[in-house]
Amino acid sequence: MRHRYPVVFATILLTALLGGCHSVKKLVPPNLRPPENPTGQLDLAKKTLQDATPCCTSFADFSYQSQLPWSPKKFELGPGSSVFSLNGQRSYFLSFRLPADGKLPYRVGVKSELNGRWLRSSYLFAPTIVLLDEAFQPVGEQKDVTLCEHVGWSSDTTGAFGSFDVKDPKARYIVVFSSAAQQAANTYWEQSPAAFSAEAPVNMSAAGSFKIPHGPDGVLWVGIMDKAYASAVDNAVCGKAPAGDGVLKTLRDVIPVPLWSDSTSNSAKTNDSSSSSSTSSGGSTKP
Length: 287
Hints:
Layout: H1 4-20, H2 40-51, E1 73-77, E2 83-86, E3 89-92, E4 94-97, E5 106-112, E6 124-125, E7 128-132, E8 143-144, E9 148-150, E10 159-166, E11 173-177, H3 180-183, E12 186-189, E13 210-215, E14 218-224, H4 227-235, H5 247-254, H6 257-283
Parallel strand pairs: 6-13
Antiparallel strand pairs: 1-14, 2-3, 4-11, 5-10, 5-14, 7-8, 7-11, 9-10, 12-13
């Protein structure tokens, strides 16, 4: 009778495990489960922006008391931030005066952080930049900054990076916002969503690369380009790399042809020498 208890216990345990195979997700705490609607947070952010009351309807209404930081600085754009409505565009924004002693040309560096707990439901604030003259009139065309992914050794050099060149001597102010076109676009991303998901042991169906949608709010770093940001921008990944022709083909393209010819010739001589040696050895053998 006493020997039956291990058998009974094993049977109960096996039944529980088999029954739980179809409900493994229930073992993941609710606060660690990915959202059922991946676009829910983004949809809410868009509605919040549309419901906000704009403070300004022209660039002349903006405040330019703050100077553009000498190195990228962190800013949070979202509920509570200033909103403008201009030419059918509505966006949170940042406005700065340009440094009077800035030596032209110089680069403005930006970095956008992923907004969201789960990568597959995250989005980015993609900036648009416009320069203004003394009369608060645009100098040239506004630019939608292209963001590219860079994964560095720390959080400071990890994110979606981009840059903008300041060249025109008439530029006095800079406005950073997100145009309607930017908010409708996306950024290429190489990281797999399974690597960032507590559901990964349950569902490992993740692609190797995908695109992160842009949204109306988020964390943005902006300021005059420094060495760390310049390196991140110059080495960032902006799209899927084209398929190669193979290692040997690449080596033949890189290494000078004579080296390949000499290598082939030496290989042929070695084979001929081996064949001759084998034949000579075979001919001197007596039965």
